Amino acid sequence: MDAKDLLRIIDDGENAELECKAAKGGLPKDVWETYSAFANTNGGIILLGVEQKGQEFYPANVDAKKLMKDFWDGINNPQRISKNILMNRNVKIIEIDGKEVVKIYVPRASREDKPIYIGHNPFTGTYRRNYEGDYKCTKEEVQRMIADQSPTPQDSKVLPNYGLNDLNLESVKSYRNRFSSLKPDHPWNGLEMREFLYKIGALGRLRETNEEGLTLAGLLMFGEERSITEHLPQYFLEYREKRSDVPGERWTDRIISSDGTWSGNLYDFYFKVIRRLTDDLNIPFQMEGFFRKDDTRVHAALREALVNTLAHADYYGKRGIIIEKEKVLFRFSNPGVLRIPLQQALKGGVSDPRNPTIFKMFMLIGLGERAGSGIENIHLAWKEQHWTTPELIEEFQPDRTILTLRTTSLLPQESVDFLKAVLGNYYKWLTNDEVLILVTAHQENYVTNTRLQNLTDKKSDEISKLLSGLVEKGYLEPNGQGRGTKYTLTEMFHQKSVGNSRYNPISSGPNVDNSGPNVDNSGPNENEPAKNSEQVLLDISEVARKKKRLNPSEMEEIILNLCTIKPLTLKELSELLNRQMDPLRKKYISRLLKEGKLELLYPEQVNHPKQAYMTTSLFTNQH
C-alpha cells in the first residue's frame, strides 16, 4: 500500500480497519487500546501523525522517528502490553503530502495469543474493534478468548458426573446402525455400547482419578436436552423455514431443541434438518453410467455447511445455533468466531474446529470432508451452479459466525437488463467489477465492502476504490460509515430515469468521467433560461469541484448560494461540489437545516424520493 492509497483511505474516514491519531504531543496513550482492539478482532492499520478536522483528515507535523522508537519501546515492554505480535516490516515511516507518518499494520492475533491486553489483567485491559471504535471487552468475551487458547479441545472435556443415563439410547442405536451399514467389517461393530462410545470419543476417563464420564462431545451428540442444558444453560438449536418471500410472513416450519417432542441433541437435529434443507432442491439430476444420481455437489455442500456449523460452535456462547431456509437462501449461524483468520478460512486447506471430536463422529458415518476442505467444497458447488458466492462473516457482542448461501444467479439477467434500461449507453462504460457490485446491490438491496471481498478476489482497499468511484458517478449512495457502510442504488435506479422530477436535474445521465455535471444532458427542458441557470450553478461550485479540501465556512457559503438559484437534491449537490453524498449530508446539510438556513422542498415528507433543498429566501419566493 503506497501513500496514494493511504490518502484515499484517509479521505474515506476512520473505520473498523483504520485508526488515525494526530500524535502531536508524542505517542498517544490510547494507541495501546487500538493495538489490542485490532489484534483481538480482524487486524488493521494505525496511522500516527494524521489529524482530523471536521470530517476530513490531514497529515500533521510530528517527529516520526521518535514516535516509531517510542512505539517499539512500549510494545516490547511486558508491563505495558501482554505480547508483541508485530515484526519489523509491520511498522514503517511513509511520506504523505511531504510530511512523515508512522504506519503500523497490526495483524489478527492467533487464538493462542489472544487476548492481547494492556497491563497485567486481561479482564480490565482487553479491547476489540467495532464500527464505532475501540471498546473494552466484557468478562465473558475475555473468558471465551482464554478458553480458545487451550490446545485441549473443549469437546474432549470429561464430565465426571454425566454417564450413560444422560444419553438418548435411541440416538446411540441409530448412530451405530449407520456406522455398521457404512463399515460392515469394522472391528468396533462387535463392541459393547460402553466400549464403542469410548472408541468414538463419547466417553472418557479422568487419568488423575480414573473416573469415567461422558465427554462434552458425547453429551452434545447423544444426550437428552435436559441433561445438556444442565451443563450448558445457553444451549439451544433452532431450524426455521419460510417458503415464500412475502414480508412479515411467519416461519412455515420450525424445529427447536427444547420443545420436548424429541431428544434435542446434535445427532438427531442434523437428520431432522438436513432432509428439510435438501428435499426440494431444484438441481438437475446427473447420470452415472445407466443410473440416475440424485445426490449433487449442492447436496454435499449443505451437509458440509451443517456439519461445520455444529463442529465449530462455541456451546458455552450465547444465542445457540440457528439454521434458516428461505426461498432463495440458506443461513447457518453459530456462537463463537472463527479460530483462524477469515481470509484463511475462505481459501481452505487449513481447519481448526472448536469441537474436533464432534467433527470426527460425523466423519465416521460419512458426513463431513477432510479438515479444511469444507468451505472450499461449498464454494465449488455454488460456482458450479453460477450462484452468488457464499458469504462468511463474523459478528461480535456476542461472538457469532454466519454463513449465508444464496441460490440466486451471480449475474441474474433481470438485474443486468434493469441496469441497461436505467443507464442506457452508460452501461458499456462499466467494468466487470462495477457490474457485479451494482447487480449485487440490486439483488440484495445493498452491498458492503466485506460482502464484495467474498464475491471477488480483491482486497478491502481495492474494493473501497471501486465503491468510491461508483458513488462519485452517482450510482451508489453510502449509508453509515467505516467497514459497516452499506451502499444502496441511488434514486435514479428507483425511478428508472432521472430528469422527470419537479425541477430539472443537472444531468439526465450519470457522470462517467467524474469531471462534473453533464450540462449537455440537462433534462427535457431545453429552453435557454434553464441552460443559463445550470451554467450559473457550475460557476458557483467550480472552486469546490477543483479543490479537494475547502474551509468549512467557504463550503457552507457555496451550498447556500447554489440553493438560492433553485432547489437541489443531495445527488445534484454531490455532483456540483464533487463530494460524496453521505459526508455532505452529515457535515453540512443536516446542520444548515437545523439552523434554518436551508428548507426542505417537501417538508411534510422528509423521505420524499424527490426531496431537495433550498434557501429560506427561495422557499418564500416559490410560495
TrEMBL record:
Record InterPro entries: RecG_C_sf (IPR038475), Schlafen_AlbA_2_dom (IPR007421), Schlafen_AlbA_2_dom_sf (IPR038461), WH-like_DNA-bd_sf (IPR036388)
Domain of life of the organism encoding this protein: Bacteria
Signal peptide: none
Domain Schlafen AlbA-2, chain residue ranges per copy: 14-129
Region entry Disordered, spans: 499-534
Protein name: Putative HTH transcriptional regulator
Organism field: Paranoxybacillus vitaminiphilus
